[in-house]
């Protein structure tokens, strides 16, 4: 008998390249271009806010895990870092750092750890933090620094909403915005949503690395485009063009980085389509008729709450399932 | 290019280690241990006793029922023991031990290299012969071949599919058989087709073996009923249901058998064994085994007598240095071996030596609901739910989530970024649910 000690474990004996830490790392890499543009547009302050947000989120998770849940450290999977960056991206660059710390406590402490930590939370933690600030500190959350080259400190969405409410025809408002400059970053807003081009660059990276699939982002943006086109064609005097809606506010940041959060999105491709379309439609309803100029955060949180239901009823296509009799 | 419809993964194939090594006859060892349960079904019943003289090809154990298979001596010599012996996992199994003397074969076996192309046997006689010769599925499942060829009343076979996919990484035994014994392989396929009365033979091969596809296509010019079907590389294409779907586009219904869609699937090694059994009267006494591993000095494809200790093959190919895990079969579905002195059996397609650093699993984390397991499952199941439900012992819900459909291919565990042992749990849940289904059916 050979005395060498051998490892015994059930098959499979090999593992693929998927790894939580690597996938979270890929998300962070994907967000780098947007952070660079934010720094160029709003100055170093945007990096300070993001870094502070990351540090706060990591600290809160470490604290809760060590002293309240009393479990092993969960920081290694980098998910708290991703939440931190995304939370920072959803804040104005000139926000007081004290508010960032509050947002981090709400995001990680309430939005994630109360549910039991990674994988258990119902709502996207970064958005829980952002929406808390939006409701509790509306002034700080809606006064943006003036971006280099932007017309004013208001976001294009807020500007358009005010103008249309004041009776200015949407066509005229459209003439005052430069969509090309806007998509590059010449606009006011949360620091991460500043450049659609940079965000899309990251999207391509995530697709190439197979971190996410196209379903959720495309369904969010596609349904937004469709919805706004219909509204615009019906009444161009009152509604802004679809391009304006896709390029402004948190459309791309939300669709690509927030709505695709693994934990809070559906498990099947079909479910992802329903979820994505739901987000797009709710976002447009809020933007066109709601009290807020932007509705992406609310739309994602609302659809987050529907995910368990979607997962219960929308099941994957099964191999060898009997064909439905018509 | 064709492939199966749902899920699947793309592991690196690691076949470069051994694919160039031509099949080599492994020297006959001094002692062989031949287990009596080398197939699915009832174990064979020993018909020799201590002290008996045996020759190669002689029956040493008879089939223990219809779903069973006889066992033949793989060597000539004297039976020194009939009794329990540790198998590869350390379980005690009835085994015949033979001390080897010379290499004397049963006279009825045609050992010449001449290729015999035709026989007058009727389909019924072919099946009987395959049963007598102890042929079982050699891809690893070891289901007795004659049972698979006995088409139940009311069903009709429409095509034979030869499984030449060999989708397990590392393994190259089937590939070498295709390259070196292609003609015999096709003749074996022809015999199998005759046995089940079908006109059409498909040979499914993945496109990571372009030379095998080209070679068999050339040979198939003389076999008009044979169609070589190149398949897009994707694991688990060699799974029976996946292969049928890839080749014919038909899905075996949930809970059903291949014959429900008119297909019978046989592996490359089995087809070769059938040729030898029917045309050359040679029982299943030896098989091709891939001995390989990332750090092994000289990986090989060896023609090995059944009952040879795996440790002898390992020593022959470079030894155990730096090895942390020995796997009988491939890395996706093979079983870890605790007793490397256990014998090669009819189902041993490979002996894979994993280096120590690749032997241990990563530490498991939390499910992050990334849905990679759902995307990977070739049966369209939701492994993440099965994992939770098994841990909650909720067997009714597990059955409603179709756990019985699981083919245990390992795609879910392979693709989990949190290294959850999904399939470990699913196996536990599936075993319990299958038990409940059997009990319920027995009551009816």
Brief synopsis:
The complex is a heterodimer of chains A (326) and B (444). With 326 residues, chain A is mainly α.
How does this model look, in words?
Helices cover 61% and strands 0% of the residues of chain A. Chain A contains 15 helices and no strands. The longest helix of chain A has 24 residues, at 45-68. The termini of chain A are far apart. The mean pLDDT of chain A is 90. Chain B has 444 residues and is an alpha/beta fold. Among the domains of chain B are: 117-280, 3-Layer(aba) Sandwich (Rossmann fold); 372-443, no CATH class. In chain B, strand 15 and strand 16 (335-337) form a beta hairpin. The longest helix of chain B has 22 residues, at 422-443. The model of chain B has no long low-confidence stretch (mean pLDDT 95). Chains A and B meet through helix 1 of A and strand 15, strand 16, helix 9, helix 12 and helix 13 of B.
For this entry, give a set of tags:
heterodimer, A: 326 residues, mainly alpha, 15 helices, 0% strand, globular, B: 444 residues, alpha/beta, Rossmann fold, six-stranded mixed beta sheet, four-stranded antiparallel beta sheet, 13 helices, 17 strands, 28% helix, 20% strand
Q: What is the topological layout?
A:
The complex is a heterodimer of chains A (326) and B (444).
Chain A: H1 20-42, H2 45-68, H3 79-89, H4 97-110, H5 125-136, H6 138-142, H7 156-165, H8 170-176, H9 179-184, H10 196-208, H11 215-234, H12 242-247, H13 251-258, H14 269-289, H15 296-313
Helix pairs in contact in A: 1-3, 1-10, 2-3, 2-4, 3-4, 3-5, 4-5, 5-15, 10-13, 11-13, 11-14, 14-15
Chain B: E1 24-25, E2 31-35, E3 45-46, E4 53-54, E5 59-62, E6 71-72, E7 77-86, E8 92-100, H1 123-132, H2 145-149, E9 159-163, H3 173-180, H4 182-196, E10 200-206, H5 210-219, E11 226-231, H6 240-248, E12 263-267, H7 268-280, E13 286-292, E14 300-305, H8 310-317, E15 323-328, E16 335-337, E17 350-355, H9 372-376, H10 383-391, H11 395-400, H12 411-415, H13 422-443
Parallel strand pairs in B: 1-14, 9-10, 9-12, 10-11, 13-17
Antiparallel strand pairs in B: 2-8, 3-5, 4-7, 5-6, 7-8, 13-14, 15-16, 15-17
Helix pairs in contact in B: 1-4, 4-7, 10-13
